[in-house]
Amino acid sequence: GENVEQHPSTLSVQEGDSAVIKCTYSDSASNYFPWYKQELGKRPQLIIDIRSNVGEKKDQRIAVTLNKTAKHFSLHITETQPEDSAVYFCAASIGNTGTASKLTFGTGTRLQVTL
Amino acid sequence: GAVVSQHPSWVICKSGTSVKIECRSLDFQATTMFWYRQFPKQSLMLMATSNEGSKATYEQGVEKDKFLINHASLTLSTLTVTSAHPEDSSFYICSAPDSGRGQLETQYFGPGTRLLVL
Q1: Which of A101, A104, A107, A112 to mutate to test the interface with B (most CBs of B within 10 A)?
Q2: Which of the listed residues A11, A68, B52, B108 has the most CB atoms within 10 Å of its CB?
Q3: Whole-angstrom distance between the N-terminal and C-terminal Cα of chain B?
């Protein structure tokens, strides 16, 4: 089955700096890669996702890049703010039209944005 | 849109009792829902895939007789933890894709149910 590795496990940055979180996946058939933000005791919230037919996607301060050949994808957060502090999870799935597909999650990155 | 709710949000029970957790899609229909378990400071681990009108599919290592799943309607899936023990204490989260949006990869998560077994 799919295996997703995520690094680093913890990341501390100063407010205004950029943060980068990296994930690798094992199954070359995976074609959907979402990123979730989870605050303590809350549900995971989808912040951005990318499909294998594109290499990069950006939404304001958040961007995701995908390298299918190397089987890795990364989350980039620019101009970090204290409210970005949370645990971030990457995930991968094999998405097919017409059927729901299960997600395999990375181990998570605890991001701390300091003032 | 794409709101998923769970009930209860937290529950404390005695060892040996059973606990039922409900997962509802409020503004869309979900033929499939997923159940995850999350231990403190750990990732989400998929337990099972709940399919409306048919049997759930369990992940390797998850006891189907202990974690009973019923998906009786297009908006409701239930997870029953039978004969709960302290090691079952965890955060249980469900998710569902919104088939109406045509992109079944995107999953929307419920707020989670925190279970504490004494």
Answers
A1: A101
A2: B108
A3: 37
